[in-house]
Amino acid sequence: MTVNYSLYSLPAAVLVAYYPYYYKGYLVAKQTGNWNNISPRDNLNKAERQMTQDIWRKAKRCEAAHQNGLETFPIFATAVIAANITGVPTSTVNALSTSYIVSRIIYNSIYINNESTRLANFRTLVWAASMGISFSLYILAARKSSHR
C-alpha cells in the first residue's frame, strides 16, 4: 500500500506561497532598519525611498509572487481533495502534488530573482505547468467519479 503524502502538500503549498511574503519583509527590514507591524501592507511603498532600487524591485516581485501563490492555492487544494475523495490512485496524487510544489518553488525563485524577459516567459511556462497539474488532478477525479 502506498502512503498518501498528497495532503501534506497542502500545508507545504501554503509555506511556499508565504515564503516570498516573509522574504519581502526581511528585505524591507534589512534596508530600512524597521518593520511597521501596525500597517504591514504599506511597508514596501513607504520604504521605497529608503531602499536601493534593485532591492525595492525585488521586494515588489516578492509581493507579486506571494499574491500569485495565494491565487493558485485554492485551485490546487481543491484538486488534491477531489482526487483523494474520488479515489485517484495514491501514487498518482502523490506524484502530481509533489510536482506542483516543485513547480511553485521554481516559479517563486524565478519571479523573485529575475528581471529578464526571457526568464519571465519561462516563469509563465512554469506557472502554466503548475496550473496544468491542478487541472490534471481535477480531470482524474472527474474520470474516477464517473466510473463509480
Textual characterization of the structure:
The protein has about 150 residues and is an all-alpha fold. The protein has a domain at about 5-20 and about 55-145. The protein has helices spanning about 10-30, 45, 55-85, 90-115, 115-145. It is elongated. The model has no long low-confidence stretch (mean pLDDT about 95). It holds the Pfam family MAPEG. It is found in: Membrane. Its main location: membrane. InterPro entries: MAPEG-like_dom_sf, Membr-assoc_MAPEG. Keywords: Membrane, Transmembrane, Transmembrane helix.
Shape: elongated
* Strands, total number: 0
Structural class: mainly alpha
> Fraction of residues in helices?
over 70%
The secondary-structure element order is: HHHHH
Q: From the alpha-carbon coordinates, what is the Rg to the nearest angstrom?
A: 18 Å
Strand content: under 5%
The biggest sheet, with number of strands, parallel, antiparallel or mixed sense and barrel status, is:
none
Q: Give the low-confidence spans.
A: none
The N- and C-terminal alpha carbons lie at a distance of 21 Å
Mean pLDDT reading: 93
Please count the helical segments.
5
Chain oligomer state: single chain
